[in-house]
Amino acid sequence: MNRLLFSAVLIGFTLCMGINVSAQDAQQQSEAQQTLLPEIDPQDIEIRSQFQARFPGLRRQPILGFNPRPRVFQIDPNRTPFFEDEETVVANLPIGVLDRPEPPRYTPLGYSDPQNGFARIGVGSYLSPEADIYAVGRINDKNRISASLNHLSTDGHLEDFTDSFRNTELGLRSVHLVSEKTTVQTKLGVKSKFNHYPGMILQDGTPGDDNTRIEAYGAYGGFDVNVAQTSLSGVRVALDGFSNQFDLTSDRPQLEGDAIEWGINGLAEYSRLGSNIEEVHRLRLATSAGGFDPLSLESGSWSVTKATAHYERLFNYNTEVKAGAGFSGVTDAVNDFSLYPVANLTVTHNLFAGLDLKGHLSATPKHRNVGDIYSENRFIDFNSPMEHQYEWLGLAEIHIEPVSGTTFSGGVSYQNIKNYLYYSRNDNVLNEGAVVPPILTERYYGLNFENANIFKIYGSFSQDLKPDVIWIQADGAWQRPRLSNDEKIPFIESLNIKGTVAIRPFKQLVVEGWSEYVGSRDDSDGNSLSSFFMMGARFEVSLGERLGVYGKLVNLLDEEYELWQGYPERGFQGYIGITYLF
After folding, report:
1. What residues form DSSP beta bridges with 397?
2. pTM, entire model
3. What is the structure's pLDDT at 506?
4. What is the torsional sign of CA 74, 78, 79, 82?
5. pLDDT tens for residues 67-88?
6. Rounded CA gap, 119 and 116, in Å?
7. pLDDT at residue number 468
8. Alpha carbon of 507 to those of 110, 466, 504: distances in Å?
9. CA–CA separation, 83 vs 49, rounded Å?
10. 151 near 171, Cβ under 8 Å?
11. 355-367: buried (b, 16+ CB within 10 Å) or exposed (e) per residue?
12. Is 109 left (phi over 0), alpha (psi -120 to 50) or beta?
C-alpha cells in the first residue's frame, strides 16, 4: 500500500506542476507559409478527430506490422480512447496541402459537426452495456479541457461458472497555452475492472464451481512540457506515473490476496535545427522505474534508462532519414544490471509518385507493466516475477498507390527478443489428498520469459470502388514464432487474415461487414488449438443532425472458440444503441 500511496501522491504532484506542448512534426519553410494554413478552431479539430476515430466505415491507411496476437472481439478497437491536438493534425498534412486551397470537407452521414462532444451508448445481449462519451470545453482562449469515458461490461454467457466482467476508464486532459512557444498539457485517468477466474478443474476433468474474482483499480497522471524555439527545435520535459492494484477473492484461501504495481516515467529532450532542409539534431534522456509486489512472492523493482542522440533529415525532397543511437542500463527483479546498445534507423524513400519504400532497424530494451498484461490476458495468476526484454527488429516495407483510392502495402520483418514474455497454463493441485472439499487443480496462466524470434510476412489492400459509397480493405500476416528451443510460442497463431467491406447507399446510412480468420495455435503443452473464423456487421443511421442509431452483430456464425484455452468466448451477440452529438 505504501507504493500505491506513493504513486497517488506522485500523480497529484505532477498534475499540479503539469506543462506540455506538442510541437509540429513538419518543417516550417518560412513565416509566409504559415499564413497559408487554414484557420481552424483547435476545439473543432479535437472533437472531429475523436468522433471520426470511432465512426464505422472510417477508411484508414493499413497499419503494417500489426501484432497478430488475438486482439478483437473482447473490446471494440474503435472504442479505444486517444487524443489528438491541432498541432498534430497540421503536422500530418502533406506538404502540398499547404500551398493549395482546402478541398470541400466531407461530412459523415447526416450529422452536423459536434460542438462540445458526443456520446454513444448502447446495450448488447448477455446484458452487455457499453458507453463511449467524449467532451471538450474551452475555459478561455488559453485553456482547454477534455474528458472521455469508456465502459463495457457483461453479465456473462457461460452456464458452468460465473464469467461476468467490467472494463471502465475515465480520462481527463487539459491544455494551457503559456506563451506563443510554450503550452501546458496534463493528464489524469482512473481505471476500474473486474472479472471471474473459471479455472478450477476437478479430478474427473469437469469444471469446479469455486468462485474466484479479481478487482483491478488503476490511476495514472502526468505532464509534458515543450518549449518550442521553432516547429522542430526546443526543449521538452515530461514526467508521468501510474499505479495498479489487483485484489483477488476466492472460495479457496490459497488464491486470495492482492498484488500491487507502480511506475514512473521521465523524459528530457533537446532539439536544434541543422543547416539543411528538415535537418534536426536531438539529444534525449529517458528513464522508467517501478516495482511489482506479487500475490505470494517477494516484491521486485525494475528500471530502464536510455541516453540517445538522434539525427533527422530530408534528402532531395524524397528520402527521409531518421537515425538514433545510444546506450541503456536495465535492472529487474530477476536479472543483474545489464548495459545494452540502443539503435533506431528508419529510411523512407519515394521512388516515384505512388511508390514508397521503407526500411527500419532498431534495438531497444523495455519493461512491460502488469496492468497492460492483464488487459491482454485477464486470467493471469499475478504471481510471477517480472523481467525486462531486449529486442532487435528489422523490417522492409513497400507502399503502392497505382491509382487514386487503391493501395497495396506489404513487408517482411524479423524480431530477435531476449526474455520474450509468453503464457503457460498452471497445473497446481489444491487440497491434495483431501476428500472434503474435493481435490481441485488450478489452471490459471503464469508468465514465462525466454529468448524468442519471430519471422513475419504481411500485406494489405484497400480500394474505394466508388468514393464515399463503397470501399473495401483486407490485410493478413503469416509468421513463424519460435522460442529458443525451436518450439512454437504458445497461443500465437501463424496465420491471420481479416477484411472489411463498407457501403454507404445514401447519405444517412453506413453499413459495414467484417471477417477474420485466425489459424491454429499451440497451447503451453504443445497441443494444437483449433483455428476459428469470425464474421460481424454493424450499421449507423443518422435520424437528424445530432441524433443517430447504431447496431452491431458480433460472431454472426455463432462460432465456438477460445482466445485463451479453457475460457470459451461469447457466441452470437447483438448490440443496439444511440449516437448523440452536442
Report:
1. 358, 411
2. 0.81
3. 86
4. positive
5. 333 333 333 333 333 333 433 4
6. 11
7. 77
8. 6, 14, 7
9. 8
10. no
11. ebebebebbbbeb
12. left
